[in-house]
Amino acid sequence: MARTERTDIHQSVTDRIIRELEAGTVPWVCPWSRTKCGIALPRNAATDRAYSGINILMLWGSVEMQGFCTQKWLTFRQAHAQGGNVRKGEKGTTVFYADRFTPKSEAGSDEPRQIPFLKRFTVFNVDQCENLPESMVAPTAPLPEREIVPHAEALMTETGADIRVGGDRAFYAPDADFIRVPPQQSYFNQIDWYRTVFHEIGHWTGAESRLSRTFGRRFGDHAYAAEELVAEMTSAFVCAELQIEPTVRHADYIGNWLELLKADKRAIFTAASAASAAAQYIFSSSTRQPSVEDVASAA
Question: Engineering a disulfide at 126: which of 38, 60, 72, 175 sits with its beta carbon 3.0 to 4.6 angstroms away?
Answer without folding.
Answer: 72
